Amino acid sequence: MLMNVFDESRAVSRSPLIKNHASGVVFLFVVLLLISSLVYSTLSWMWDEQRLPLSKIVLQGDLQYVSSLDVQRAFAQLDHIGTFMSQDINVLQSSVQAIPWVAHASIRKQWPDTIKVFLTEYRAVAIWNGNALLDGYGTVFNGDIGQLNGERVKLYGPQGTSQEVLNVWKRTNPKFQLLNLNISSLLLNDRRAWQIILDNGIRLELGKESLDERVARFISLYKNLGNKTEQVSYIDLRYDTGAAIGWFPEQEAQESKND
């Protein structure tokens, strides 16, 4: 009889604990449900196409040739620009990177509606094959030649040789500058032969081999020509020694001098 009373007492004592535990579980469930609902509502609001539209562009960088209008036009070519939350930055970056003068683009979003665009432009040091441009690393890009400020050397060569031709110009032009001359154009043809036209109009045929030696030979010859340099049309240096000089007719040379 005492044993039954003892068991009932234990059962009665556990009942409040079970009720408290059940209440705690229900409370936790309600809290989690409220938090989930709040998070869902917030995300739904933020991803809503009518909320937080990206409507402002801030353009930064030391720019000469790329304008905010160029960036706007690049973005306008996209099918759709999303919201602050939904828009993929990589898509925007690829779009701006396609602008001809852009060497590098860095884009980030600024809360709540702004796209910050930082651009680095190519610096054109030469005109390549008449219709493209080269930067100082030999990278070919399609900037508008008509936008260039000042003159650029004209370089020509087969596809894939831009770096080589540029390096030859960088190495060789200072040698001509010692004579107060500059390379106006430098050509590497399909047969791997070099040709140079100087800014005084003289054409140099340099062939495929011994380029530096032949340039040095020209410099020595040029110094010895004195005033006769104005009558020189071309100099063919494709010989082991010496050179062949092509002269303007006397009348043509006089007209060239008067010009």
From TrEMBL:
Keywords from the named record: Cell cycle, Cell division, Cell inner membrane, Cell membrane, Membrane, Transmembrane, Transmembrane helix
Localization per Swiss-Prot or TrEMBL: Cell inner membrane; Membrane
POTRA domain mapped to chain residues: 52-122
Chain segments annotated as transmembrane: 21-47
Matching PROSITE patterns: POTRA
GO biological process annotation, one example: cell septum assembly
UniProt entry tagged with the keyword Ribonucleoprotein: no
Gene3D superfamilies linked to this entry: Cell division protein FtsQ/DivIB, membrane protein fhac
A cellular component term, taken from the record's GO annotations: plasma membrane
Keyword Cell membrane: yes
Record membrane topology: Single-pass type II membrane protein
Subunit note: Part of a complex composed of FtsB, FtsL and FtsQ.
Family membership noted in the UniProt record: Belongs to the FtsQ/DivIB family. FtsQ subfamily.
PANTHER family: CELL DIVISION PROTEIN FTSQ
Protein name (database record): Cell division protein FtsQ
